[in-house]
Amino acid sequence: MDPTKEGDICTVDQAAPSDNEKSDDSQTLVDSEHSSSFPEGGWRAWLVVLGAWCAIFPTMGIMNLYGLLEDWLAEHQLHGYSKASISWIFSLWLFFFYLGGIQIGPIFDAHGARYLLVPGCIGMTLSMMFLSVSHAYYQFILGFSILGGLSASAVYTPSAACITHWFLKKRGLATGIATTGGGIGGIIFTNVFGILSNKIGFPWTIRILGFIFLASLMVSLLTLEARLPPSPSAGSKIDIRALKEPVFTMTSIAVIFAEIGLIVLVTYYPSYAQSHGITGALSYQLMTIMSATSIFGRVIPGLLADIWGRFNVMFGTCAICTILSFGLWFTAGTDRARILAFAALIGFWSGPAISLTPVCVAQISKTESYGKRFGTTIAMMAFALLVAIPVAGEILKGQNRGTVETEYSGLIGFCGAAYAGACLFLFLAKGASVGWRVTKVF
What we know:
Elements: H1 3-6, H2 12-15, H3 43-61, H4 66-75, H5 83-99, H6 101-111, H7 114-133, H8 137-166, H9 171-196, H10 202-223, H11 246-275, H12 281-308, H13 310-332, H14 336-349, H15 352-355, H16 357-363, H17 370-399, H18 409-434
Helix pairs in contact: 3-8, 3-9, 3-10, 4-5, 4-11, 5-8, 5-17, 6-8, 6-17, 7-8, 7-10, 8-17, 9-10, 9-12, 11-12, 11-17, 11-18, 12-13, 12-14, 13-14, 13-18, 17-18
């Protein structure tokens, strides 16, 4: 088989014939993407999904700890710092996590996955060790935010890219299964932290998490592999020319807004619950509930996306997140049932913000250049999140001049607006690609 044909995924221009040329609504882009060259299964392809799962397990799973870590640091090591200041630690982690993709993506295309996985695995483990002994603000920034974020990027980006090499028609399902690692990681990590931090202390709790990370990352190191051979001749240069494509730019903006909505939820919902009467173990369990429902929210929409269209499903789930934010969270107050119900529902419907983001970018990219293009998207996400989390913190601070933060309406509005923005740009990206008919599969 000609390897040049294996990676010949169509671009938007190739994949978006006019309505007159393509009248069958069930026809999807994958039909013109040389689907016969993709394995779509088999033990080797599913081992790659396992490797991606083990890579996403720590890199995405740790994000579910942000709210709990922020509360802990505010009460202990960084007592006296405002939550807005402490949030910069996690905002910078996310910044370097996503920013690294702009260079890591091209390196993946040119040199393959293991070239990045080895330093990434070592760096993530060392970062957790540094976190366990940090006491000063700058130590958290250097050891956790910078080292941890860049190392996680070197692990996550190849995991997302490798799946696109092995799956096309089933790409949504395969990516959805792999990203359940983040949800399961969230359940395990929040419970480990919630149970052990008060029993054995913060340092050893973080070290135990670090050992769990290392075991998982070793599996990904052994199983993650690209199907197409590395192409050193393509170079490892940053690719920003993709931003000249309106559809690519609008898609990137859409998934960035969806990510902002999700990160605001993960970071601030635990503190919202605690300030509204959810205390003790139940406050930790809220993130477990959200993580548990997000597992189904990554697999089921991923499966449906392969049938109904990736952009269509992403739009629908973001629209529901907008409704839940303005409708249920905004009116929850101290109603325990509503707080728990929102955690369960938003966990499910926000799941595709993780699982379908790489799939949507892959749909408008060629496989051999996917690393560069996905890296460009998540690098843009890095700058957006660098600002978004502190802005959310300042909104919260501005509405609560006292010592107790109980007014969250501005923060909730910010979260809902982010999801609404995602809907808008997904709608525009689809319209510019295949027309404005709602029933068009895309």
